[in-house]
Design a protein that fits this description.
- By secondary structure, this protein is α/β, with parallel strands linked by helices.
- The chain has two domains: 36-151, Rossmann fold; 163-281, Nitrogenase molybdenum iron protein domain (Rossmann fold, 3-Layer(aba) Sandwich).
- It contains twelve helices and eleven strands.
- The termini are far apart.
């Protein structure tokens, strides 16, 4: 009789266990499982493929180019999302970088009736927090925590080795012309620069804004990073008195790394931190 009782107890535990919802690290139940997803920004595509591979990527933008194995993923957005195509695919979730869509676009995305996750960090702290929040929803805590730890360690290393006096860094976008855009103090890139062990040269703005040549000359950065051709800046006679130009310290950063909040944030934190320290050691 005792054996029968034990057997019944084990069976009841098995039945209860089978009916439990999926859980993530720490034993907290997830609301639902996201088996398929569409990414509407290059930054979130980097995450979906590199870290969140448990959720199959079934749609991307025409600008998504990293990692390289995206050729078989359907393009569902060019300048704007193809809402009809997305509705037909019916992914479990849509993820996107909120900085590249306006309120009207976001409302149209919501009207599809599909779960969404908007990734929109303004600081490295928010970047880490939002990554971990999304990872908790899909059970990718381990891979995300590894990235977050590396990013935090780079921030600590860069700030602990900040030169004294500090070097000043500005971030410009330029094309073939001499019309520049500069990263504003409220942008994510501005926070990356602050955490590279440098002081920031930037106007009070949330994102990139047209550059004031007079401001740049007055603030006189030691280093300029750019997503364009450094020679355009170096050969601009209006900037000839700027320290970074005089010393030819205008460094090109891959625009896909400089302008995205993807998995390669750690790359620019490391490379810019090294550049700041190397420059300071030669002065």
């Amino acid at each position: 009789m005792k054996r029968v009782w034990i057997w019944l107890l084990l069976m009841s535990l098995m039945i209860v266990g089978c009916n439990k919802p999926p859980t993530f690290l720490g034993g907290i139940p997830r609301d639902k499982e996201y088996k398929t997803g569409i990414s509407l920004s290059p930054s979130t595509t980097e995450f979906m493929v590199s870290l969140f591979y448990a959720t199959a990527l079934v749609g991307r933008t025409a600008s998504c180019n990293y990692p390289s194995n995206l050729s078989k993923v359907e393009i569902v957005a060019a300048v704007k999302p193809n809402y009809e195509r997305i509705a037909k695919i019916k992914p479990d979730v849509i993820v996107f970088d909120g900085t590249i869509y306006n309120d009207t676009d976001k409302e149209k995305i919501k009207q599809l009736g599909i779960d969404i996750f908007e990734f929109n960090p303004k600081t490295i702290k928010e970047y880490n927090e939002q990554l971990q929040l999304w990872a908790a929803k899909i059970g990718a805590e381990t891979s995300v925590d590894e990235l977050v730890i590396r990013v935090k360690n780079l921030v600590i290393a860069n700030n602990s080795q900040k030169p004294s006096p500090a070097l000043k860094v500005a971030a410009l976008m330029s094309g073939d012309s001499k019309d520049y855009m500069i990263a504003g103090s409220g942008s994510f890139l501005a926070d990356v620069i602050r955490n590279s062990g440098a002081d920031l040269v930037a106007p009070d703005a949330p994102n990139f804004v047209p550059l004031s040549i007079e401001m740049l000359i007055k603030d006189n950065p030691d280093i300029i990073i750019t997503s364009g051709d450094p020679e355009v800046i170096l050969k601009d006679s209006r900037l000839s008195t700027v320290k970074a130009v005089k010393n030819r310290l205008v460094a090109k950063i891959d625009p896909d790394i400089m302008l995205r909040t993807g998995v390669r944030v750690e790359t620019i934190l490391r490379d810019l931190g090294n550049l700041v320290r190397k420059t300071a050691s030669k002065q």
